[in-house]
Amino acid sequence: SKLTGTISPTKLNPWISSYGQDPFWELGFHRAHAFSVCDSHRQRQGSRLRRRHPLSTTIAVKSPQSPRKPVFPMHTGTSLSRLTSSVRKFLLPLVAAGTVTTAAATFHASRFTVPPGHRAVILDRLHGVSGTSIGEGTHYTVPWIRKPYIFDVRDKPHTFSCLAHTKDLQPVNLSLAISLRPELSKLPETFNHLGLDYDEKSLPAICSEVQTIVANYDVDQLLLKENNSGVLDDIHGSLVERAKRFNVLVVDISVLDVSCGEQVAQAVEQKQVARVEAETSKNLVVKAEHDKEAAVRRAEEELEAAKQFAELPEDVHEQLLAQSRAEAQREVDKVLAMFEDAANSSRSSVVDASNPSS
């Protein structure tokens, strides 16, 4: 009671208003320190302070220039530093591991390998498809910006069938085997228009070209092997030209099977048999004519030889006859010698067979 009535806070500072007199102003403390002292007294002394100084716990300060700041206890800075150090110890390994993982993932994403028989086309997200292709080996690129696409540039065999109509309006089924590969100099353009599955996209156009070629020939020209060589040449040339429009090279083409209806096949077979018979008859007539001409020529030659022989003198006739007899005798002796040798060999074999002990 003696402390409460000596000094009024409003006399020291008109901006301070209180609901009662504060005993701590008498001791000369700063107003903020007075608040902290009051708080500490409230915490430590409790009801005893409230009994002795009932108005000391209800001090209100109004300061428009500097609002009241919260007062932390003395050990707050130490706890915060401890918390920061523990968080730092926990986060540093995570940051290091994340950095190493990111670097490894970036390095792995930047490296790519082109296997043998393949080439790579680079797609740049900023500038589009690159103008050149990359060969075999290990290469590096900028990840997530330049993406490689691997092309298989080896010969790819394909088998396809198509239904076509001939010149005489007969349906024919053709089975063909074709080998394709992309043109290396135009690989980026092929990727830009057709993609990696260039062969699957170009085969329908090739099949339509086969139908166009078959429409220029009859059915017997396709079914008969001796007539379809020209058809195969036309198919090969047309498909090569057609594939060049897609930047694709045709390596090989072969016709596996050509089939049609049963009635059409029988008609073609009968037509072929009749054609063979006609050619046989024609050959027989030609042979008879040749035999006739040969007989006439032989008779004329014999007549000419007889005339020349008749004009020769008598001594020449005798010499020619003697020469003819000598040639005939030599032929007879040669034949007799052959028979004698055969008889001797057979006789020796019989003797050997009868004396097996010797």
TrEMBL record:
Main location as per UniProt:
mitochondrion
Assembly and interactions?
A: Component of a prohibitin multimeric complex in mitochondrial membranes.
Which GO cellular component terms, listed alphabetically, does the Swiss-Prot or TrEMBL entry include?
mitochondrial inner membrane
The membrane topology noted for this protein in its Swiss-Prot or TrEMBL record is: Single-pass type II membrane protein
Its family remark reads:
Belongs to the prohibitin family.
Q: Where is the Band domain?
A: 110-272
GO terms in the biological process aspect are: mitochondrion organization
Q: Where in the cell is it found?
A: Mitochondrion inner membrane
**Pfam (any one):** Band_7
Q: SUPFAM superfamilies, per this entry?
A: Band 7/SPFH domain
Name the source's superkingdom: Eukaryota
Name by which UniProt lists this protein: Band 7 domain-containing protein
